[in-house]
Amino acid sequence: MELDERKKTILKLIIATYLETGEPVGSRTISKFNDLNLSSATIRNEMADLEELGYIVQPHTSAGRIPTDKGYRFYVDNLMEEKEDAEVEKSTLLERVDRMELLLKQVAKVLAYNTNYATLVTAPNYRKTVKFIQLSKVDEQTLLAVIVIEGNLIKNQIIPIDTILDNEDVLKFNILLNTFLQGASLEDINLEMINAMKKQSGEYSVILDQIFQGIIEAVHEANELEIYTSGATNILKYPEIGDISRTSELLEKFEDKEELSHLIEKKTGNKEESGDIQVYIGEENAVQNMEDCSMVTATYKMPEGATGTIGILGPKRMDYKKVVSTLKNLTIELDDIFNKRKGVNDDG
Amino acid sequence: MELDERKKTILKLIIATYLETGEPVGSRTISKFNDLNLSSATIRNEMADLEELGYIVQPHTSAGRIPTDKGYRFYVDNLMEEKEDAEVEKSTLLERVDRMELLLKQVAKVLAYNTNYATLVTAPNYRKTVKFIQLSKVDEQTLLAVIVIEGNLIKNQIIPIDTILDNEDVLKFNILLNTFLQGASLEDINLEMINAMKKQSGEYSVILDQIFQGIIEAVHEANELEIYTSGATNILKYPEIGDISRTSELLEKFEDKEELSHLIEKKTGNKEESGDIQVYIGEENAVQNMEDCSMVTATYKMPEGATGTIGILGPKRMDYKKVVSTLKNLTIELDDIFNKRKGVNDDG
DNA sequence: TATTAGCACTCAAATCTTATGAGTGCTAAC
DNA sequence: GTTAGCACTCATAAGATTTGAGTGCTAATA
Questions:
Q1: Residue A228 has pLDDT above 70, yes or no
Q2: For A79 and D24, how far is CA from C1' in angstroms?
């Protein structure tokens, strides 16, 4: 059954009012909106219909109505008009920084500051290639490997070695490593490549093993999905989650990057257009303890087609309009940085 | 008024029982300890005395007694026998790592895992000296500065520059920087030193300014008091803090390094012997919202006399014995690492 | 036929009432 | 100095009562 215009209007009013007050919305409240000019009895009839259709529900017999997940979904998809472009402050939120890592951390922070929800940001799934490796002697038996990856992701790795090395050796290794690894994608740095390097190097193979070991560790670390979060403690402010133990579980979940990456992974595989907003309401999250939460994510895009996600986790009863417009703005800014201003080095 | 032996015994039993159960302890409970052989009436008389002396208090008229801060203090100072060395599992908790930063993060984690409290660890206040600086060309107009500091604290800094540099230039700068800065204490890297370098360098002064700018930023960052925390969400499990908003404030405070550094600073200036345990109970913390918390810290020591702190923040009603012994163990292990095993490079 | 006024009904939340029982302080006896 | 006995206190839990917001239904109305 299609909703007629009046039902839509009423549903919209109910949800908007509920988002504002957090209290179940009664028929009289709605009938007071003077552009409606309907008595509470009529509203009641309409509400009964809306309830039968699954858009709203009564927490208990003599209470007003609150939206169901289906109701929220309809609101987000059809009823919520986004803020006019004019209204949206397009003030630049991001400072320019040179390192992808710092930039994304900043995004998470700014987003948390602007929405007062818990936020998470994933690094783009771009093909990470090595810009260069710098091996330096820390002391007689210790090396430092610095690996710089596209986007200026920097990894440091201390490598203890058995043999005493002089500067000549270190220089040689540097050249060897860079010859092979410069421009290589992190995924390509595997046993085969290492064996090739070993062959070429000849006598130094024992030390090289130790160095490779270190490099591989660093590469492995760099290759992990990076997720940055901010404002986790905002979760404590969602009253609807209720129980402190549930809240605490949720908070712990949010601090566990492993868990988060699952959460995000499920989301991807969608349309993946930059600026796309995805909203996951309540049960749609399919993660324990998140039935009372909504997640709103936006996809940002890098020039080569790599995409990343920025998003917030909040209570179902959240200001979707504001969140969506904030996310859109930030995505645009991020796209800008990646595509025009080149604040962060990309593959070019 | 001195406490006689019987009063001490009773106080100890009261506190020990309370630590276990969390319920106010009544006279009958105590009188049941058969090594005491006293009726509840007698215990009541003694309890009345102990209350008058300020060691225990009734939450309300018809309740049992719970310890006051003064009671806890007396318990910790005089009554609590620490676990026998034999009982304490001396299992090695720490993995050996080469970087101070990783080591301390690990300490915080291990401590949280073992105590189930929120933990914090400060880096030692050692004189940080530069081991070496490595400047590398990221691309035509970007440099990467890697600063390695004693203890293998590593800082990376991207430095954008206006001029296009060739490898020769970078090499020159490297030599220049290291000549001046190797072995220098971070505090010494100031305008004077930089002016001296500028004079020596001659023509490159414009670029040098940009490089110095970057180096100074990195040095500044490295010089900040590092505090590592872990297990913050354990705070949510302290039931005595009660109110979720208070808990949440406390949690936020705990995540604010600024705030934490104040908390720690107040503690220092004490005896500063390695292995020293300091216990701060309730009001002794003199930080808002921490009246219901206790903080237990231990000092660890580096060979040159630098000291750092490891500690936990928990509810007043905590297993002090266990916490103290865990802290002692970790401190010993840490001292070991710094002084014998040299897991982390020190000044040598 | 759609809308509305009227009214009985429901039920969460707040407030009050009333046990219950753990624990105390005091007193008099041992 | 210690203890038995007893009256007293008060937090907690469980019921009882009130209040009010809100509903569904029905009959009257436009």
A1: yes
A2: 28
B5-79 under CATH 1.10.10.10, yes or no:
yes
- The string of DSSP codes covering B293-339 is EEEEEEEEE-TTS-EEEEEEEEESSS-HHHHHHHHHHHHHHHHHIII
Fill in the amino acid letter for B303. P
Looking at the complex, report in whole angstroms how far the Cα of residue A36 sits from the nearest Cα belonging to chain B.
Answer: 40
Question: From the CA of A288, how many Å to the nearest CA of chain B?
Answer: 18
Task: Kindly report, residue by residue over A237-291, the tens digit of the pLDDT.
Answer: 887 776 777 888 899 999 998 889 888 876 554 555 566 899 999 989 878 888 8
Residue B290 phi, psi dihedral angles, 5° rounding? -110, 15
Which of A154, A160, A233 is opposite residue B156, by nearest beta carbon? A154
> Is CATH 3.20.20.70 the classification given to domain A100-125+226-341?
no
d(CA A39, CA A44): 9
Which residue in B293, B292, B302, B291 sits closest to B341, CA to CA?
B302
Phi, psi of B45 (to 5 degrees): -60, -45
Of the pLDDT bands very low, low, confident and very high (cuts 50, 70, 90), residue A229 is very high
* Topology classification of domain A130-223: Enolase-like; domain 1 (3.30.390)
- pLDDT confidence of residue B347: 42
**Do you know the residue count of chain A?**
348
Task: Kindly determine whether the C-beta of residue B49 is less than 7 Å away from any atom of nucleic acid strand C.
Answer: no
Specify the pairing of strand B293-301 against strand B277-281.
antiparallel
Q: Where are the domains of chain B?
A: 5-79, 100-125+226-341, 130-223
Whether B5-79 and B130-223 share one fold: the answer is no
Give the DSSP per-residue string, B78-104.
Answer: II-PPPPTTTS-----PPP-S-HHHHH
What dihedral angle (degrees, nearest 10) is formed by the CA atoms of A320, A314, A231, B158? -60
How would you list the strands of the sheet with A293-301, edge to edge? A227-230, A118-122, A307-315, A293-301, A277-281
Q: Give the residue on B whose Cα is nearest the Cα of A96.
A: B160
**Which residue, among A269, A339, A276, A329, has the nearest Cα to A302 in the 3D structure?**
A339
Strand, helix or coil at B185? strand
Contacts of A139 in chain B (CB under 8 A): 131, 345
| The one-letter amino acid at A305 | G
Q: Per residue in B282-318, pLDDT tens? A: 989 878 888 889 999 999 988 888 889 999 999 999 9
Q: What are the pLDDT digits (tens) for B164-213?
A: 888 888 998 999 899 989 999 988 888 788 888 888 776 656 788 889 98
